[in-house]
Write a structure and sequence with these properties.
The chain is of the alpha/beta class. Helix content is about 35%, strand content about 25%.
Length: about 280
Amino acid sequence: MQILEDIRCFDGRQLRVQHASEACACDMIFSVFLPPHAATKKVPVLWWLSGLTCTDQNFVTKAGAQRMAAELGIAIVAPDTSPRGEGVPGDPAASWDFGLGAGFYVDATQAPFDRHYRMYRYVQQELPQLVGAEFALDLQRQAISGHSMGGHGALTLALNHPEQYKSVSAFSPICAPSQCPWGEKALGGYLGNDRAAWRAHDAVALITDRSFDKPILVEQGLADKFLHTQLKPELLLEACANAGVDLTLNYRAGYDHSYYFIATFIEDHLRFHQQYLS
């Protein structure tokens, strides 16, 4: 493991780390924010999953989460959104919504992506093992959140592993990837044409199939140009209502899909997670 940067950030410590990933068969980079509390004890951790075209740096530099995370004593780990590097295949058509920067937090089963695109296992298993061994993190207290494609990843990981994550939230998540162009392209390309295999990576399908016993917090801007075509939070609202799942869906007038939206409401989400991590 190689530390690429060591930045003093507020009263905490922010690191950018590169390591050789077994899951993704390449070098992967992630960022870690440690609150000052980590100097004397283990602290809870929030996993942040970013969206299409992003890296580990988007949330770190744009969300403004560090001040409140330092105050609440929460570490934040932000992985990249896909494997990268020489030999890692991208979209043959060179589009931005598949391949590099668009791993969709699944374990690909289709060639040539099955060797590198194992973001689900990377986030859920490999990265916790690595950071738990290297940093003062309490892995008995994990929460997960994300934006857009990362909101999809946060929801599906929490729904599949309620024993691992104490709480889950999302900004502008892709709620039903089986029913939108981004999701159909990604799930078909990574997992193949059997739509039954897609259900384990579709929040609406997972809630329909097995319900969920923890509260979910979702933030959605009403000026988001992807709202009706790609995100479809109304399907999540309907599924949660039918299954009796505790969903808080905040529609925010005037807000779009950008990090200005996340920066405005990230404090609310950190305080939400603190309720379950404390």
